[in-house]
Amino acid sequence: MSLDIARIQSALVAEKLDGWLLYDFRGTNAIAEGLVGLTGQHVTRRWFYFIPASGTPRKLNHAIEANKLNALPGDRTIYAGRGPLVDGLKAILAGAKTIAMEYSANNDIPYISRVDAGTIELIRSMGITVVSSGDLVGQFEAAWNDAEIATHRTASEKLYRIKDRTFEYVQAKMQAGTALTEYVVQQEMVKFFGEEGLIADNPPIVGAQENAGDPHYGPTQDKSRTINPNEVLLLDLWGKLPTPGAVYADITWCGFTGETPTEQIAKAFATIVAGRNAAIDLVETRVAAGQVVRGFEVDRICRDTIAAAGYGEFFVHRTGHSLGIEVHGNGVHMDDYETRDDRKLLPGTGFTIEPGIYTKTFGVRTEINMVVGEKKATVTGACQSELVRMSGVKQHV
């Protein structure tokens, strides 16, 4: 990823900031590493890269790693000992009063809070105010370009096909009276991933009935249950193309291994659909009107909808997460529950909306993906409105 210094400086002016200070020590700030192109490199000393709102960027490197930021534009200062480090930092920040770093006040957004407290204290001791770079990261690290959006859409289409094939596979096997475990179904899905040419950091989630009530359940060869008739079957699958820069898609659908789900299951599923739709409507309406929408607001409207139906205590998960080259990206999360993510949903933002109701006896979740454009926000796939019903299944013999 190459830094567009001119665009960053325009954003800094718009936000009334004197600059953006990128800093890392031994991989503690993966966001900064990625922005300057050092991901995966062996860097053992502290480095700083300051992008001022106007003028030439400034680098501060240790003497034994003096060339590590050579690919970036700007003037270079070299340090070796502790004193020269502090003096060098004062020099590259000369004239700045308010700067952005990967910091979050009160650690409200831990995903963006990558700079240690001591470094923040050091910079503040120089009379400089440090604010969060959250929206800068959203614009210059987490936002997708047209080519990246295309990889997401392709991955999404493949995931939907895998989802359909999996429900068809389960129904056919259970109609024949074949015993199926969650793990067996998961491994069949892994085969489908290979056939579709998708990769993922982990295999998909297959959870039946009470296991669907665990938001992060995943079957293994040693920990898996049989899928029985008249149960919820949750499929959570995510993947991306095996090409550089490709970004993830991530969906969840629920089925029922029988003709008619219980009233309790049907009501719970209808409730999360209503919460999801309220969140989608908020994003679509705000973006179309040119209004700001923040991550916590999306979570709040979804959560309030589910709570109003009497299920608030069972929604123990944020509403959604950022998507990127990793399935959980560095952009805005739809969260006013685990954290309070006040970052803006900027153009190019890709994320999930995935409310769920999780009880001791069953769980349901619906998950879709959205991409924000300049004037329109779009759901990049079908939205499930009813449980997938698998009729004619038999108890295995």
Characterization of the model:
- With 397 residues, this protein is α/β, with parallel strands linked by helices.
- The strands form four sheets. A six-stranded mixed beta sheet has the order 4-3-2-1-5-6, with helices on both faces. Strands 7-8-9-15 form a four-stranded mixed beta sheet. The chain has a three-stranded antiparallel beta sheet with strand order 10-13-14, with helices on one face.
- Strand 11 and strand 12 form a beta hairpin.
- Helix 6 packs across helix 7 and helix 8 packs antiparallel against helix 9.
- The relative contact order is 0.12.
- The model has no long low-confidence stretch (mean pLDDT 96).
What order do the helices and strands come in, and which of them pair?
Blueprint: H1 5-14, E1 19-24, H2 30-36, E2 47-52, E3 58-62, E4 75-79, H3 82-92, E5 98-101, H4 117-124, E6 129-132, H5 134-142, H6 146-175, H7 182-196, E7 205-208, E8 232-239, E9 249-256, H8 263-288, H9 295-308, E10 350-353, E11 356-358, E12 363-365, E13 368-372, E14 377-379, E15 388-389
Parallel strand pairs: 1-5, 3-4, 5-6, 9-15
Antiparallel strand pairs: 1-2, 2-3, 7-8, 8-9, 10-13, 11-12, 13-14
Helix pairs in contact: 6-7, 8-9
